[in-house]
Structure prediction request, 576 residues.
Amino acid sequence: MSALLEVRDVTRSFGGVRAVDAASFDVVAGSITALIGPNGAGKSSLFNIVSGFLRPERGTVHFSGRAIQNRAPHRIARAGLVRTFQTPRALTRMSVLENVLLAAPHHVGERLGRVFATPRAARAHEDAAEREAHRLLTLVRLDGQADAYAGTLSGGERKLLDFARVLMTEPRLILLDEPMAGVNPTLAAQLLEHMLAAREERGVTFLLVEHDLDLVMRACDTVVVMNEGRILATGTPDDVRRDERVVDAYLGAHA
Amino acid sequence: MSTIASGEFWAFVGVVAGIYTIFGLGVQVQFGYTGLLNFGHVAFMAIGAYTMAILTVKTGIGMWAAAVIAVGVSILAGLLLGLPTLRLRADYFAITTIAFSEIVRYIALNEDRLTGGSQGTINLAGAGTAAQYDESWQHFQGRVQDWLGLGSKDVTMLVLVWSAALVLLVLLHVAVRSPWGRVLRSIREDEDAAASLGKNVFAYKLQSLAVGAALGAVAGLFYAWQFSFFSPDDFAPLITFFAYTIVILGGTARTWAVPVGAVVFGVIFAGTRFFDFPPFSLFDSADRAYLRLAVIGAILIGLMAFRPQGLFGKREEMVLE
Prediction:
């Protein structure tokens, strides 16, 4: 199988600390890959590097064959690699619907010149975007609150909104930063269902940072374990579970 | 106290409010919608006014062409200001923009041969030579006055300024309600989130700055035409903060709140001059003129405390933080 994302020898330090130290791993197209490890292992830094919010000092990141380690975040997102943040970044003083509409890709109405030069084309794009946005909001059961300010949503609902918004960008690879953290079990089950459906119906690949090991072991195809900036092990959930180094560094008691 | 009742005086107040409406719309798009703290907005007004006047007096091109070029130069100045500064954090950006407007004012003050220096545009063509940049405007205004059958020049100016203000208001309204405006608001809310969804935050900030610069320049043109003379003193940083006062007074992130804020501001600013009842009558008229600044300050403090969204803002969307 081909790798959609290839991370090679990525290194990044903060002060004297190597947050990410020569990290290499692949994310196979169509997979759900988990990045796990103790706090401070460098998972978030690695996420920031892959999504373009942080530049690596060394190493390369290839997304569907193209080097992206020096690209700006918005260009990486447009190429189809879209991330969420650990705390959902709902635009609180905009409506739930607007939050999703904002994520519409290649929207001609977002060009000031086109708003005046080709108002009909801009309107048509907006109508199509609205239909898609309502569809996605219905999917995550937030359509009833489409016109409410996103600031009125609960933490769990904001995660669902984040997810709908990311899907709106028509992504090929979604990076989820702790999607299940602070989410009640019902909602967590819902989110997982949405992920599986998105993979099935849209061919979306997932890379997630997650502390819920139960979910990781159950739902993921590949697990990448990080510790102190380095990749400790990569493999199927079963491989990783049996790996002595992983047990010592992270899992603790033999599971 | 005959002045306060005269139509001419209030027509003048209305003209100034119209100019401030155009000027304030620039602050509204930059600050109200995009969240950019541009504290040097007055620079664009100065660049618009000076470019038009200088080109008209010193080159052969006509005043109207000079006016169009002036708006273009102001947009360019906005882009030049934005390129190095927009990547700065919001507070550093704000400080840099103040410095920018002061640099523009100091150039106007010290480059006598180009700008007329501290004596202003009267000196544009050199000492002893009469320099008028607004002949074409006076001519145009006269024709409009005859055509509409209006009684005075002040009223004609009132009609012209507000016509321009309304056209610009409608255009800006369409722009900020479009998906383009939605991107601006998303940057105001959380620029990392906007970037993560594929929006080129820097490019949109530049566009917002450029649109504001164009509006500032148009305000500068009307300012120059209204007064037929101006000097660097007219473009002190205080003018920028008047525009912020207007936007906050009317309500941020509302296009049509700007003219309302400008009229309220204009009436208070001009009207306080004539407060002749207690306790204001305790002061002589010269001191009373300064009272207006205190009154405006008090109104702003009151707004912050009781109506932080401004007169017409939506509280959920734009509470000042």
Remarks:
- The two ends of chain A are 30 Å apart (CA to CA).
- Chain A touches chain B through 37 residues (CB under 8 Å).
